[in-house]
Amino acid sequence: MESDFLMIETLRTRLVPFTEEHYAAIFANDNVRLGTLLYIPTPASWTEFSEAQEALPVLYEFFKMLKRDHRWGSYFIVSKEEKVLLGTCGYKGMPGTDHFVEIGYEINAAHQNKGYATEAAKALIEFAAAQNITGIRAHTLPEKNASCQVLERCNFSFAGEVIDPDDGLVWKWELITGTPA
I need a surface site. Which of 1, 125, 129, 156 has the fewest CB within 10 A? Predict the structure, then answer.
C-alpha cells in the first residue's frame, strides 16, 4: 500500500503521516519548512516532549523499514479549524504475531484538556480495527494520569504492570477489537 497520501480525518483534526520530507525538515530543525509541508503557520517545534525528541532516530529507522507502507508509523495531529500542530500520535510498530498494535500520542501543552488526545486515539483505534487486527495496546506511566483517562474513555482495560525495555515499569492497557480475517 502506497500511503504517502494517507490521512486520517476526525471531526476536528487531520492525522498526517510523517514523510521523508517531514523527517528532513525535523532533522534540519527547519520549522518553516515543516509548517509549509503541513499547510500550517510555522510551529515552534514538531514536539514539546523530550522523549519524542530522543526517540526521533528510532522513529526514522522504523519509518525507513516500513518502505512506502506508512500506515503503522507516526502521524502529526493538525487542527482543521485553527490550522496548528497539536501534537503527534501513531503506532509503535506493525501488528505483531498476536495481531496487536501499540499506540501512543502526545498533545502540546497549549492544547491539552480539550479532547484532542482522545479524538486522535479513537481515530487510530478505528483505523487499526479496519485493518483486521485483534487488538490494541498502550503503555502509560504507572500512575493515574491524563493518558489513563484517555484510554479509559476509549474503552481500554488495565492489563497490569510490565517492564518496557525503554521506559522501565509501565502500566499496560488493552482493547480487543476483533479477530483477524
Answer: 1
